[in-house]
């Protein structure tokens, strides 16, 4: 299908981009890598009158690593994360998750900001943002603000972004060197969206017991979520087989799962438990 008729602009500054978005009262859309937006245009799922291309905004392409954590500019591509060796220690969970995003050609264009704004419940990056307590920095005609990832995703393909707001960067808190982590994903084919994925980490106290557990689940329900009931199983315990099995049981019992063309809700609940079990075993090892 051909795209609907639309106008195109390629601004050279963030303020110009915001002004263009604001000028159309919800009828303009930013375009980043186009990997989700172009199919949505072709299928007439969205029909904006203006596309605002973000490719000439170099300040959105930076990966900054500091004592405060990792800042990913909205136009950072999956490929940039794969290629950045610093992230292997600065954020190994992010790096592991991104390996599961789509196929080579899509990773070469698709961006972090596009994925966060698109808010697919089965996409890896929104899940990492929620699991890691990321903050999403946005800017619009009323100024800049940050939104906690947990408050940003309101449902499938729905976020807290206003029509004239752009994501500028995603801020992941600092990653301690000794942190234990695991990422496990199941999809029908390599590169497909997750049918279920678990992203988790915990730190350890002096006695080797887990503290600060964060367990996120991707691909079930209408948005990525943390599982506080499973985190409660992990916190304060040595991660042995009994804890791992209990965490898996509690995952399957508490996740929000829906049936779709790929699987029944019961299958997804069971799969989520298996993902948490294997991710936790990998973290403990
Ligand atoms: C075949 C296929 C398989 C895929 N598999 C996966 C997968 O396994 N996992 C996965 O996570 N993703 C997958 N994707 C999606 C891919 O990762 C894209 O990168 C992602 O969907 C959006 O990034 P983009 O830069 O292409 O955004 P675009 O398509 O350009 O934009 C997507 C949406 O975000 C908005 N937007 C873009 N940038 C901003 C910004 N800075 N501020 C505000 N709004 C913005 C756009 O207006 C649009 O609504 C797949 C895509 C395809 C085509």
Radius of gyration: 19 Å
Largest sheet: 5 strands, antiparallel
Give me the number of helical elements.
Answer: 12
Shape: globular
Catalogue the unreliable spans.
none
Return the string of H and E elements.
EHEHEEEHHHHHHEEHEEEEEEEHHH
Structural class: alpha+beta
Q: Approximately what portion of the residues adopt beta-strand conformation?
A: 25-35%
Percentage of helical residues? Answer: 25-40%
Roughly how many Å apart are the termini?
49 Å
- What's the overall average pLDDT, rounded? 96
Question: In words, what does this structure look like?
Answer:
This protein has helices at residues 14-22, 37-42, 78-83, 87-90, 92-98, 104-107, 112-118, 124-131, 149-152, 228-234, 241-254, 265-284, and strands at residues 7-9, 28-31, 50-53, 63-66, 69-73, 135-140, 143-148, 153-155, 158-159, 166-173, 180-186, 196-204, 210-218, 225-226. Helix 10 packs antiparallel against helix 11 (241-254) and helix 11 runs antiparallel to helix 12 (265-284). Helix 2 (37-42) links the parallel strand 2 and strand 3 (50-53). It has 285 residues and is an alpha+beta fold. The radius of gyration is 19 Å and the shape is globular. The strands form four sheets. Strands 4-5-10-6-7 form a five-stranded antiparallel β-sheet. It has a four-stranded antiparallel β-sheet with strand order 11-12-13-14, with helices on both faces. Bound molecules: flavin-adenine dinucleotide.
Descriptive terms for the model:
12 helices, alpha+beta, binds flavin-adenine dinucleotide, 285 residues
